Amino acid sequence: MAMLEVDNVHSFYGNIEALKGVSVTVEQGEIVTLIGANGAGKSSTLKTISGLLRPRQGAVRFNGVDLRSTPPHKIVYQGIVQVPEGRRVFGRLTVEENLEMGAYSRDDRSGIDASLERVFSLFPRLKERRGQVAGTLSGGEQQMLATGRALMANPKVLLMDEPSMGLAPVLVDSIFNTIDELHRSGTTILLVEQNARMALQVADRGYVLQSGEIVLSGTAAELRANETVRKAYLGIE
After folding, report:
1. Could you write out the DSSP letters of every residue in 194-234?
2. Cβ 60 vs Cβ 218: under 8 Å
3. Residue 216 sits in which domain range?
4. Burial class (CB in 10 A: 0-12, 13-18, 19+), 145
5. Residue-wise pLDDT tens digits, 47-103
6. Which of 33, 77, 183, 194 has the most CB atoms around it within 10 Å of its CB?
7. What DSSP element (H or E) covers 174?
8. Domain assignment present for 177
């Protein structure tokens, strides 16, 4: 049994079918990536897992438990935490207050303090700016903060939605170095990322979505070697 399982999910926005029978599994300790063009269904898959989008058909299971009727905040309590696309930090709160907000589902003060120190060790820049209002941070710093805020919940599975979007190349490298470090520390990650080259460098396995359907899946090495993936997503003829 996979730790996280999306099983034949059909999700809709109104009458528009965003996911057409999507099935994805994530094993404990893995990084699994979803790649595809804009509108392929990548973010919709994460929203369905998080409970923000309810499937009309199919199931989402976490350690064998069906999450379809579980409210989003209770999904966080179970250990599935999302780093949203566009970062969405609390702009009027300080860096430290944003991080404290990430731990709202916890009541273990010593554990929260340990998580805060872990975030500051991963992102020393956040420690330097712990008293700064989050809305004044750069895009890269806000991405660090959004990731750190999610880690404060002590997630069992981290859902990351386009973490490199809009960032300068040097910051993209930094974010992916952090993802790789989280992986090595045992964090389970489901990664949505348009930068397929970088995603397939850090992932164990991947799925390619097209128009709401899985069209390819395999190990990261298999997908990097696939001719269709190389041409469509890696820019290699």
Report:
1. S-HHHHHHH-SEEEEEETTEEEEEEEHHHHHH-HHHHHHTS
2. no
3. 29-35+75-232
4. buried
5. 999 999 999 999 999 999 999 899 999 999 999 999 988 778 988 999 999 998 988
6. 33
7. helix 169-184
8. yes
**What DSSP letter does each residue of 52-78 carry, written as one string?**
SS-EEEEEEEETTEE-TTS-HHHHHHH
Helix or strand run (H / E) with residue 8: strand 4-13
Helix, strand, or coil (residue 30): coil
CATH of residue 183's domain is: 3.40.50.300
Neighbouring CB atoms inside 10 A of 38's CB total: 7
Residue 69 lies in a domain: no
Beta-ladder partners of 192:
34, 161
Residues in the chain: 237
Write out the two tokens for 3. 């730790």
**Residue 98 domain-assigned?**
yes
CA-nearest of 180, 109, 176, 179 to 150 is 179
Residue at 40: amino acid letter: A
pLDDT tens digit string along 199-212?
999 999 999 999 99
Token pair for 198: 């970088």
Q: 151 and 115 in contact (C-beta within 8 Å)?
A: yes
